[in-house]
Amino acid sequence: MARPIHAFVALCAFTVLFIACPALSQQLPTRFPQSSFVKGGTDLHRAARSGNLALLDSRLKEGMDPNVRDEAGRTPLLDAVSAGKLDAMQMLLAAGANASAPSSSGRTPLIEAAERGQLAAAGVLIQSGVNLNAIQRGYGSALETAERFGHNDVAALLRQAGAKSSGRSVGDTVCVRPWQGDGYCGKVEAVNKTAFTIRVTKIVGCINGCSAKAECSASRSVGGADGIQVGEAVSTVSWCLTHTGVQP
Fold first, then answer.
1. What Rg do the C-alpha atoms of the chain give, in angstroms?
2. CA distances from 97 to 27, 75, 109, 145 (A)
């Protein structure tokens, strides 16, 4: 008879727990998503994008994590920067938002500001002590991103703050050597998205001339009597830059 009694006791305990659970759940404090990724984002993300400071302030005071991430790994601060909502940015930073936190793709708030030409947003992030030299694959640093998208005011601000290039910024020495180790090197004079203007300082392995990929040499040969020469400005694309070295 022991087994039926045990079963009866277990059934009773389950019944009591089933009845009590709704009451217990009503007494538990509301907890907002604190996991690394939240599908669809949170109220913080939506408030940051829209600049709804009342909602943003309310959710932060209720205990929402200012560094909560959506399914793309984006933080509310990254969304606020993207939308150019300075007040929302400052509220999030004051609440402890990480100014350097990258998305899943490596996009940081500063790189976002650099691509969009958000000068004021970049200034707020710099003042917060953000990592100036974080790199996103395919974009490089915030400085390089600002130059590629033609936001020279943002690039100047970043340089003034001490931002460094990872090797493909204006003034850096780069080499264009995508074919059998031959090509040319020079200093970057201008950047426009994926297009680089390079002032040639050295011909590499093509003294007597050699052919090059059209996109890497403006459809010209390199070296020789009629090819690209030292001192010329040549247009090339970013994926032709196979060797870089930042100048002091």
1. 28
2. 30, 8, 11, 23
Q: What is the pLDDT of residues 192-231, one digit of tens each?
A: 888 999 999 999 999 899 998 899 999 999 999 999 999 9
Question: Residue for token digits 């759940």?
Answer: 25
Domain 43-161 has CATH 1.25.40.20: yes
pTM for the model = 0.69
* Residue tagged 């992030």 (tokens): 125
Closest by alpha carbon to 105, among 78, 142, 133, 73?
73
Taken in order 132, 77, 102, 36, is the CA torsion positive or negative? positive
How is 50-119 classified by DSSP, letter by letter? HT-HHHHHHHHHTT--TT--BTT---HHHHHHHHT-HHHHHHHHHTT--TT---TT---HHHHHHHHT-H
238: DSSP letter: G
Which residues have C-beta within 8 Å of that of residue 51, sequence separation ≥ 6? Answer: 80, 83, 85, 87, 88
What band does 36 get if pLDDT is binned at 50, 70 and 90? low
Burial of 106 (0-12, 13-18, 19+ CB in 10 A): middle
- What is the Cα–Cα distance from 47 to 247, expressed in whole angstroms? 43
**Edge-to-edge strands of the sheet including 182-192?**
233-237, 195-204, 182-192, 173-179, 241-245
Q: Which residues pair with 235 in a beta bridge?
A: 197
Q: Domain residue spans in the chain?
A: 43-161, 173-245
Residues of the chain above pLDDT 90, percent? 64
